[in-house]
Amino acid sequence: SQQGEEDPQALSIQEGENATMNCSYKTSINNLQWYRQNSGRGLVHLILIRSNEREKHSGRLRVTLDTSKKSSSLLITASRAADTASYFCATARGYNNNDMRFGAGTRLTVKP
Amino acid sequence: DAGVIQSPRHEVTEMGQEVTLRCKPISGHDYLFWYRQTMMRGLELLIYFNNNVPIDDSGMPEDRFSAKMPNASFSTLKIQPSEPRDSAVYFCASSLGTGGRKAKNIQYFGAGTRLSVL
Questions:
Q1: Residue A21 to residues A50, B100, B104: CA-CA distances in angstroms?
Q2: Do A90 and B48 touch (CB under 8 A)?
Q3: Which of B55, B98, B107, B108 to mutate to test the interface with A (most CBs of A within 10 A)?
Q4: Would the CB atoms of A102 and B42 count as touching at under 8 Å?
Q5: Is B86 helix (H, G, I), strand (E, B) or coil?
Q6: A44 touches chain B (CB under 8 A)
Q7: Chain B residues close to A43, C-beta within 8 Å
Q8: Regarding beta strands A10-14 and A106-111, do their DSSP bridges make them parallel or antiparallel, or are they unpaired?
């Protein structure tokens, strides 16, 4: 069963704009991760945020985590056409960090 | 390291045939995962192993599906007999495991096997 739920399901923006994707989850977590999937490829890890962190940055990526609301957001600033991909959040269930579930993903299209 | 290696990349077979998908995880990784991805159902976890032992196979859809990990560097996912509804992209992933200060549950995915059952 899926743990994370992303929204929106699809997002279309112009190059240079910011893209925000959200993820909600149901159970307590140790960390939350975001992955990216280009069409026809496997998922690639982008960033991990621990349950005791509220915000994390990596290049043009900014991730926030609100454990009280069981939600996270991924912000991509100054988007590029190459950012076009599907983005997934993943959470580890319970205390087994390796028992992870992925959401349905947000399909991001960045128009040049 | 070459990353997680899956074979074949594409498989086309007829209904009723046996299909075997193969995966070589990253050397030193303790966990191996098999996923199935479809447009309708998204990314589903089928089964995962820790140190070659199956830990959770609750995602395996039916008895037609079986997975093995005979050693730390090889795993197979078998479908017998295959059906058209098994058509999907199957991914294998591996992770280092838990323990230590550094989060080790980051998963590394293979390129996937696109299965078409006619």
A1: 18, 31, 24
A2: no
A3: B107
A4: yes
A5: helix
A6: yes
A7: 43, 91, 93, 107, 109
A8: parallel
Distances (CA, A) of B16 to A66, A69, B36, B71, B80: 48, 47, 19, 28, 7
Q: In the numeric block, which tokens belong to residue A97?
A: 């960090």
CA distance B64 to chain A (A): 20
Please, which residues bridge with residue A44 across strands?
A: A36
By C-alpha distance, which of B91, B86, B43 is closest to B62?
Answer: B86
Helix, coil or strand: residue A81: helix
Each residue's pLDDT tens digit in chain B (118 positions)?
A: 689 999 999 999 999 999 999 999 999 999 999 999 998 888 999 999 999 999 999 999 889 999 999 999 999 999 999 999 999 999 999 998 765 455 678 899 999 999 999 9
Inter-chain touch A41–B106, beta carbons under 8 Å: no
Number of Cα atoms under 13 Å in the Cβ half of residue B5? 7
Torsional class of A20: left (φ above 0), alpha (ψ -120 to 50), beta (otherwise): beta
Q: How is residue A8 written in tokens?
A: 């929106």
Closest CA of chain B from A38, distance in Å? 11
